[in-house]
Amino acid sequence: MNSKTFPLSREQTDRISRDYPTPFHLYDEAAIRDNARRLTQAFSTLPGFREYFAVKATPNPFLLRILADEGFGADCSSLAELRLCETVGLTGERIMFTSNETPDNEFREARRLGAIINLDDITLIDALIAATGSLPDTLCFRYNPGAAKAGNTIIGRPEEAKYGLTRDQLFEAYARARDLGVKTFGLHTMVVSNELDEQYHIETARMLFELAVELKDRLGIRLAFINTGGGIGIPYRPEEKPLDYPTLARGARAAYDQVIVPAGLDPLSYHMECGRAITGPYGWLVTRAFRHKETYRSYIGVDASMADLMRPGMYGAYHHLTVLGKEKAPATHTYDVVGSLCENSDKFAIQRPLPEIEMGDLLVIHDTGAHGHAMGYNYNGKTRSAELLLRPDDSIVQIRRAETLDDLFATLDLPAAQSFK
Active site includes 76? Predict the structure, then answer.
């Protein structure tokens, strides 16, 4: 059982909303830093450990700067994410560039920044040469184990996923890259998302360790690092048990000692690229109830929508919900909590037992610190919300202002439209 808390009172949140109207996303800097340190400490027993924060989870330079200060690198998959990293001083081998169907200009930008490039497909060897003129000295490949490894609900079955090389392609790719002059190699995989079972991640690490040994035996290639991806989950539901970092780290270290050390491959650096696990539990979407509708169900309309948090509407993801000031009140009512988009999937909670909600009540949607604001969009002309940071001294800093209609219309030539015939 994990408790779902919010770092501010109803009164504090009301005061903040006078300067920053709801809806807004709020992140807790102290909690994020503490979590980053716990992860680093747990995995410090593994050689060369580095966490590459998955920028896609929360692409905000203020948060990237905080995590860079904690020693993290960045996992990027687009041009924009690369540029954000450069903005906060993350360059070179502190960037892992893992993309798919990669455009040439993104390869060129990754090379310019000196990022470690992680290729998703064997054909991208030639594409990278064509785009940049050569291969870098260091190259990584993403492995897709297919039916040999089970996936999960969010990312799907590996054999149906668009990511990664097959086993046969993997060995062919390493041999070809070696023959083309690549000197340093890494191995990457990510076959699940939001997985809370420590043993699953331990077995993933073991799979990569065993592949490292086979690469040495078959091709004479000694890997410099493995990257187990970013599938560590968070407990979205209060009854779920959080994954335990020390348990996972101990299991990975035991597999390392059983497989890598006897093969003479020690030291082999251990990397990860978590996003959700780093910031997810320490972000919240704050919204206000302003409509109450009674038909076949009781509906509470809030000023946030699926444009601010897509996960529940996209694939039925659960996010816990708290009515501020009524945390200990009995859940006497059952509601659908909904936004105002013209989509019936625009629902944050369906038939959720909650305390009685009155108009003007503040609602907190938990665990939106990753894949929350980042997945926002402008359907129905909705403008995306602000992002706020709660500093360790309890001050509030706006780290992204709310969009305006001027922002939304900036790419339109409105005068031309008025004269269009």
Answer: no
